[in-house]
Design brief:
Length: about 200
Amino acid sequence: MTKTKPLVPALALLLTVAAGSAAAHTGHETAGAVAGLAHPLALDHVLAMVAVGLWSAAALPPSQRLRGPAAFVLAMLAGASLGTTLGAQLRAPGIVEAGIAASVLVFGALVAAPRLLPRGVGLALVAAAGALHGLAHGAELPAGGGFAGYAGGFVATTVLLHAAGLGLGRQLLALPARLSRGAQALLGGGLGAAGLALIAQL
């Protein structure tokens, strides 16, 4: 078995999850852990969170690869906490949705050229995106809803998506250098195109 074989199930899983996701963040109950688990499965969230793992695998040393997901999750929780207090003020203008779509575009560039920016700048962009995604999560918690269970749910799904991105990123690094760079550029270009499409839909 060659080193490229593990890419097949990883890519299939990623495409399956992405294909089954909806771009909207409404249309399902938003209270409780189950709703929290489901909320990040919107397409824009899925793409951004997998991209965090991809970028972290490519741009950070092996001992520091969890810093990207950690920065995203911590900022997401802070944003979600703020989002619960702002609620409808965030939903109405669509500014957060535009920011999330833009984060997919930015992550496309980061994945395509993972070492283009200093690591600190990349981590800052990851944290900023995490805060935006958290605002979207928190804004859809209804008044009286249980934040702890809901937050635990969307954090769990986020961590799994980051792990999928890290796993795929490690598989890419195992390829010959030229092929690895080509695959990263292809994935980054795809993410960038998806980000542009999401922005155009707003």
